[in-house]
Amino acid sequence: MITAHGGNRATVFGQMLDGVVANGPVRRPYPERYRFRHAYEIADTPAGVPAQGRSTDWLLRVIASAMRDAKVDLATERLTILIGTGLREQGSLENWHVDGASFSLRDWDYAEAVRQRFGAEVEVQTFVNACAATLCCLTVAKSLLELDDADAVVVAGTDSLTSSMYGLLDRVSGGDAPERIQPFDLDRRGVLMGEGAAAVVLRRADDGPGVARLAAAVQNCDGRHETAPAPDSIAELIESAHRTAGVAPDKIDLVLAHGTGTRLNDEAESEALKQVFGAASGRVLLSGTKGMTGHTAGPSGLINLITGLDIMNSGMVPPAPGLHRPLPNAACFDLVTKGRRDARIDRFQVNAFGFGGVNAVAIVERANGD
User: Fold this and answer.
1) What are phi and psi of 157, to 5 degrees?
2) Which residues pair with 217 in a beta bridge?
3) pLDDT digits over 193-222, tens only?
4) Distances (CA, A) of 60 to 127, 154, 196
5) Do residues 335 and 325 make contact, with C-beta atoms less than 8 angstroms apart?
6) Domain span at residue 177?
7) Number of structural domains, the chain?
8) In angstroms, rounded to a whole number, what is the distance separating the alpha carbons of residues 81 and 58?
């Protein structure tokens, strides 16, 4: 996992436990064009200098790391790689358009670079499902394994900051430009972009022990509005995830929320969560990562999921920086606001929602009840 905190999973999670907010003045070229002046960027190139292929490089790194950790054998296993992204290599395309940087349309998608690195015979599919992309990939991965169409599936995601997306958020956000994201806070002022990449490997449970079990991965698309989420549709999907996992709401120990810090998302998500969890809300921890990582778009759901795995393994839950005055529908949950929290987590839920009403929810639990 790579975020603005650092280039490996241990570093990122350690920074999260310390509540480090990894943002700063925007490093993109031409910052004077924007009203927004902050972002959660990966400092792998000099500030203000266009660089090509950044999100592709991160993607290849996290896929290689995940495959190495899972001991994927390309010689004997049928491997599929599913890539979730919101923007693909849009930043490189923009650099070509504005500054004449080298770029081919083949570079816009990730499939060719992935096949060059891991083998031409590897099945590669890219899903451009906005901010729910990587959790949507999880639902497909689960089906591929259940249908015996693959022995191992890598689910990966990546996105870098682009001028067009940064400009879009700048234009559509009202009020003062935010300096940080404050999910579920009454004083939140909107979302800021982040950069990142993440990958995990899924196999069937009967192929051997894993680090955790994917109990449910479900998605829907209500298509009711270009950008505004629908609370009832989100609630229905969460209930579907609970039914698929065979658990009641009070058996979920932790929810890692989408939590973008926008007026619309946080109201809708907290309303849906309260509707589903009801009386169980007080015993459920509610947190998320975007206050520390920024909104990383496509990989954001998977970054939340991997953070959940680290929470489960360590018994420590990172705080939610910037959450001081919670929304009423969020205040009924057990919020982690004042430093890290020690907690045994046996089962957690991850939410991810995207433009156009694309919603996805996953539930992960300890492997073999350990």
Assistant:
1) -155, 155
2) 362
3) 999 999 999 999 887 778 999 999 999 998
4) 16, 12, 12
5) no
6) 2-369
7) 1
8) 15
pLDDT at 369: 58
For the domain that residue 60 is a member of, what is the CATH number? 3.40.47.10
Cα separations (Å) of 178 from 47, 103, 141? Answer: 20, 33, 36
Give percent above pLDDT 70 in the chain.
99
Contact 108, 55 (CB under 8 A): no
Give Cβ neighbours of residue 188 (< 8 Å, ≥ 6 apart). Answer: 178, 181, 182, 261, 262, 263, 266, 322
Looking at residue 98, what is its pLDDT? 87
User: What is the gyration radius of the CA atoms in the chain, in angstroms?
Assistant: 19
| Spatial distance between the Cα atoms of 351 and 347, rounded to a whole number of angstroms | 14
Identify the bridge partners of residue 202 per DSSP, sorted by sequence position: 153
pLDDT digits (tens, 9 = 90+) for 122-138: 999 999 988 999 999 99
Q: Which residues, other chains included, contact 156 with Cβ-Cβ below 8 Å and sequence gap of 6+?
A: 59, 62, 63, 66, 81, 82, 83, 84, 134, 137, 197, 198, 199, 200, 299, 302
Is-above-0.85 flag for pTM?
A: yes
Taking the C-alpha atoms of residue 217 and residue 213, their distance in angstroms, rounded to an integer, is: 11
Tell me if 156 sits within 8 A of 2, measured CB to CB: no
Q: How confident is the model at residue 29, as a pLDDT?
A: 66
CA distance 313 to 212: 10
239 class by beta-carbon count within 10 Å (0-12 exposed, 13-18 middle, 19+ buried): middle
Q: At residue 235, does pLDDT exceed 80?
A: yes
Per residue in 279-294, pLDDT (tens digit) is 999 999 999 999 999 9
Q: Which residues contact 13 (CB under 8 A, 6 or more apart)?
A: 307, 310, 314, 318
